[in-house]
Amino acid sequence: MVERVEKAGLKVETALAQFVESDVLAPLGMDARVFWQGFADLLEKFVPVNRALLAKRDDLQAKIDAWHKARAGKKIDMAEYKAFLFEIGYLVPEPGNFEIGTENVDAEIATMAGPQLVVPVLNARFVLNAANARWGSLYDAYYGTDALTDEPVPAGGFNAKRGAMVIAKGRQTLDHIVPLASGSWADLESRDAIELANPAQFVGTTEKGNLYVHNGLHLEVVFDADHPIGKTDKAGIADINLEAALTTIVDLEDSVAAVDAEDKREAYTNWLGLMRGTLEASFQKGGKTMTRSLEADRAYTATDGTAASLPGRSLLFVRNVGHLMTNPAILLPDGSEIPEGIMDAVITSAISRHDLEKLGKLANSRTGSIYIVKPKMHGPEECKFTNDLFDAVEDMLGLARHTIKVGVMDEERRTSANLAACIHAVRDRIVFINTGFLDRTGDEMHTSMQAGPMIRKGAMKGSDWIAAYEKRNVAIGLKHGLSGKAQIGKGMWAAPDRMGQMLVEKIGHPMTGANTAWVPSPTAATLHALHYHKVDVFARQQEVAAEGIPPLDKLLTVPLADGVNWSEEELREELDNNAQGLLGYVVRWVDQGVGCSKVPDINDVGLMEDRATLRISSQHMANWLLHGVVSEDQVMEALNRMAAKVDEQNAGDAAYEPLVGNEDGPAFQAAKDLVFKGVEQPSGYTEPLLHAWRLRKKERAAAPA
User: Its principal location (predicted)?
Assistant: First the structure.
């Protein structure tokens, strides 16, 4: 039985209420009664609007489903289709010429270009690693990954041959980023002999290094003759530290499994620890207890002899939950659960005031802003709702208008198709738009679920809509003034063990004109930073802007598999691929509460999986099942085959509960529901089913033996 306390008519889980009052409000000098009454008044105003917007999603989807059913077997006429979408309000008129008016934006977002991390808030150690990934060792990144060679990292102690290769590669990197007036860094014999081709790149000196800047990013060449590497180096260079993850999204949404008050309290506690600079995590490594905390800023002496510093940590966003989900942490006066996104907006913003009031040991924003990423918004009405909600939160917390900035995730089809109108709805607080293949595909399939069977999942990358989506997002952002004021982001590199391939392919993201892109680890951030040294993104943005905005028609092209007859082998291959990814993710989510992790794919390649990737696999299987491409028996056979595969892949995990022999358990049942109930899920989202089965799992674990 959950213990609750009444606050202004709200029934709040007792421990959560105590946390809010003692840890969040008291240091701010805020009256708890005023806070709870303001919260209750806000909810009274915004909950009905939230519910109405969700009802509109369902209404639009029903109309689109009916339109496709009435034209079954007919080729989609684009003119007719667009006219229909305008008629029902799915498409809206363009807002005309405008530029965003966002002010007080930190440089990491507005005027710098570099990697971005996304990290689950519930894992304090990972959060600290991400926040501290502002700086990374290039030597470590090359030595410990396949970015240097295709050969695996040698086992045992230090490998001198590989070390020499790392140093040589490091010198080549310096020749590109900070070239000398003559010769190569490989020939340098002392720190005193450095003469740059562009002396303006020299910024100053650190305790043991020289600090340089290129394309707005800093790097430190460390000279230390006493260091194990430095003492073997003829110039005494011990390392090259790159400014890497400029920003990090601390995630309360797709990468976490937060289903109740206990989970939310832990999430908010970690966010508070970040805002106050007190978060720590202890863990065992090499038989010793290690404690991780936030890095301090990095001091240096500028060229004019004055003391200066650079940020030692990523600038932190917090990603709130979208508009759909509710949470039992707080019950409304009618007994229903609170919309989780509204709860996040109020509590994470109140916590962020600790940073604005400089109550902690370290600072996040230096411009007095709070950065919230808002995911899963469908179209401009929902963006306006977020804008209005943030207005109300600012008023409730005594914040100046537009203190709370917003990042808009362009991961839903109605948002993509109306992106300019979405930006316009939040034009004075927007600091971020993001596009990524993975997130968007699930909604693409669900929106057109009744149109017919979709092409295979792997073929989506070559479809018309994805190419238009990736190009339009950047072009629309540039047209409306995001360059120099906000981030235009690209999606995740999903394979953390394939850094060599990442270095080859991910340069495509800055080449699109995006000034940030997601990476799966601090090491990946260090390596991806090299791409922003190779590409002057802001110069590239001018080129992209001149190309104009691709037309809407291709974005709306439904990826149907017209006239395709797959072989039995192809059908089995596709089902197995989807089922394996689905089961591998769900079993950790439901049984262990792990919202994001490196999950081996069907070929045993570790891929970063979250609910967005799960949505794709489940919706694809549901689509093929709906249109008779595969049968229920074939789907069940695939799930059973892949249950054994997933069990084998997790054999080394002591906490893992096998799927085979436990088919009636919450994890396997959740996976089945995601497919067989996939058509009826709101927007194809996985959260309602995952939350229900995770809560059932937690209840079973808490029940007396």
Answer: cytoplasm
